[in-house]
Amino acid sequence: MSDLYLKPGFIVYIDDPLFKYYRILRREALDYETGEEDVAIFSAIASGAESGFKNIAVLEPDKDPFHLFQVLMGFIHSGDIKYYIKNPSGQNRLGVDDDKEIGFLNADKSPYYDPNPDYEMYLIADWYPAINCKNNSPVTITPKIYFKGMKYDVEELDAATAEAVKAGKIPYRKIVFGGLKVA
């Protein structure tokens, strides 16, 4: 496995919305492909049309017990097929509020079976992605997205350990959720 993923024993600080420190207890591989579910998230999209934002609720981690997901996304369509991501479902992940068209992914940027780690996302309960597929190609397509990563069992640190982390005595990784913050 890659060094990209957190290991058991690692400490993470989850910034907004939780502002808390956690220890990674266990991890297991996470693999999910749209189109494999009983009720499809995406249906066929005609040339020049778009899917509208679809919540990928299957990627919502448990709240109790608390879990953390780390995912990469790969896309099967390249070229004129653009995928726009919101995480949480109401906040642009890659674009900005003034120009949403600049922030998209496709297979050129993140191939289906080799997702680009530059676009990884962390997910917690109530903070899972919504995706809109815009089809500017001359043919009808059905969006297909591959998510791979890790599911982590975590526990919140006790106050004494959290203070030691804050004081710089224990290393940690800061996790930031959502897209670009607008002041």
Largest sheet: 6 strands, mixed
Instruction: Going across the biggest sheet, name each strand in turn.
Output: 6-4-8-2-1-9
CATH-derived topology of the domain at 29-151? Jelly Rolls
What structural class do helix, strand and pairing data support? Answer: mainly beta
Radius of gyration: 17 Å
Secondary structure tally, helices = 1
* Mean pLDDT across residues: 87
The CATH architecture name of the domain at 29-151 reads Sandwich
Separation of the first and last Cα atoms = 37 Å
CATH class of the domain at 29-151: Mainly Beta
**How many strands in all?**
9
The gist of it:
With 183 residues, the protein is mainly beta.
